[in-house]
Design brief:
Distance between the termini: 41 Å
Shape: globular
Strand order of the largest sheet: 3-4-5-2-1-6-7
Largest sheet: 7 strands, mixed
Strand content: 25-35%
Helix content: 25-40%
CATH architecture: 2-Layer Sandwich
Oligomer: single chain
Length: 131
């Protein structure tokens, strides 16, 4: 298990990687970040993950909130636990129940943005091809 961070992340990419690791520590599924800074002004990156149960969605959200040095400026959906949003300004974290994630399919909506997939062993870039 990852210990709480003793220093803040240097860049949004560093924070996204830390958040992804905290989600993985709580057994989140299909963890990825999407770099949207060239496509929108609302944030630099999304971190998206999912879980099958409300209890696991709550555990992931709590694990991220507890372990990040900076706390989210806004939290949405924590009462229903279908889609929890943690707003860190430069990073917006989306924690979905699996059925909700499949329905909203944010990955398809932001298909033109570079993606990084995370798992317990490493992360891999999944950048779209440029034609």
């Amino acid at each position: 298990m990852t210990n709480p961070t003793s220093h803040p992340a240097d860049t949004p990419g560093d924070l996204a990687a830390e958040i992804a690791q905290f989600a993985l520590d709580k057994k989140a599924d299909h963890v990825l970040s999407i770099d949207v800074k060239k496509l929108t002004s609302i944030t630099d990156q999304f971190v998206i993950c999912s879980a099958d149960t409300n209890i696991q969605v709550k555990a992931i959200a709590d694990g991220i909130r507890k372990n990040t040095v900076h706390k989210p400026t806004r939290i949405e959906g924590y009462e229903q636990l279908n889609w929890v949003l943690l707003d860190y300004i430069d990073i917006i974290v989306h924690i979905f129940k699996t059925t909700e994630r499949n329905y909203y399919n944010l990955e398809k909506l932001w298909a033109d943005a570079p993606k990084t997939e995370y798992n317990d062993d490493h992360f891999t870039s999944a950048n779209p091809s440029t034609n």
